[in-house]
Known about the structure:
Layout: H1 17-37, H2 40-58, H3 63-73, H4 77-99, E1 101-102, E2 105-106, E3 114-115, H5 116-132, H6 136-144, H7 148-172, E4 176-177, H8 182-186, H9 188-214, H10 229-232, H11 237-255, H12 263-275, H13 289-296, H14 303-321, H15 333-352, H16 357-366, H17 370-389
Antiparallel strand pairs: 1-2, 3-4
Amino acid sequence: xxxxATLPSLRRVDxxxxxxxxxxxxxxxxxxxLAQAVGPKHAALFGVGSLxxxxxxxxxxxxxxxxRVFIADGRGAxxxxxxxxxxxxxxxxxxxxxxxxxxxxPVSGLVSPAGTSVVIGAFMFGIGMxxxxxxxxxxxxxxxxxxxxxxxxxxxxxxxxxxxxxxMPFWTAQPQLAPTxxxxxxxxxPALVLNLAVFALIAAMTVMVEKRRHGRLxxxxxxxxxxxxxxxxxWPLLAGAIALVLLNFATLALAGRPWGVTSAxxxxxxxxxxxxxxxxxxxxxWSKGANAAALQAPVWQDxxxxxxxxxxxxxxxxxxxxxxxxxxxxxPLRSLAAAVVGGLLLGYGARLAYGCNIxxxxxxxxxxxxxxxxxxxxxxxxxxxxxxxRPLFGLEVERVKSSGC
Length: 405
């Protein structure tokens, strides 16, 4: 028999019953309302959003912490999980986007211009990730999980998004390339080979850096639990990566385009400002096309808004199942200031860069968009700078402590 001292300790799961009941009820009522008010596809997308919230929370699949621990301590498990996620994603997405249809319905990728605004916006977003404490998806799922600090980040994320829409005519006038799809320019097979090779190169680079820094790969195993790991979490990072790709693919099938997050934040800010008497509809960004239509329509008709709300409720459900839904209302002043500044940078940067870690990085690269790769480089540079700023705001930079072992 094994020595009990050598066995991993098991964490007992005490389910938070009230938040669990509230989240389940809101998800059910939301799905029924959307099915009647808009249609079954909207209800299904709300369900996909809820499942994304569960996957993000249970796998703790944040982009911010994964980049920070690599920048500060050379640990690359999170980055390697992202590369596996992207590799699996392009194998699913590229053939479908090359054909232009999925299950007989037209689909298109999130392909945006690559230029000045992407570089500046993604760099700002990267700093905001480290000061605000999360990316776009990370902000939503941690808010759903009960983080009051991230609620502050979200409020100013929305404010920054709104401010950016007022300045978009200036930024779109700066030098940039036309929207470029690598799938269309190179062809399906070359685009796949190129992307997979770059993913492999980045993953290999993280292995080299980690072994040089620590002498081995430092992988933190998920904490064992009493009961079902899939129900209560935590999930392995790889499981989270696969779940996010499959749910993004479901979004493509239902919405006709991949998963996005931050356009809803700009819309929420614009609707709030309009309600307060600001003539947002006269701004160039909101005066024509899809943006004007979204501003005039009820918010529940906006696919991204519906999915974002689903993410929050799904994460709340997951936190309750994990026994970790416990909001803390007292926040240190410096941490609060970082949330405000970080939120503004996240919101402003996401609009300039035509998306966030989801719409520009994850879905952008899965769409074959050149701007997704430019976003990655600029945002990573911003994360380097932001990680160095964290101690000024009293924020932790995680490092593996040396030991005699």
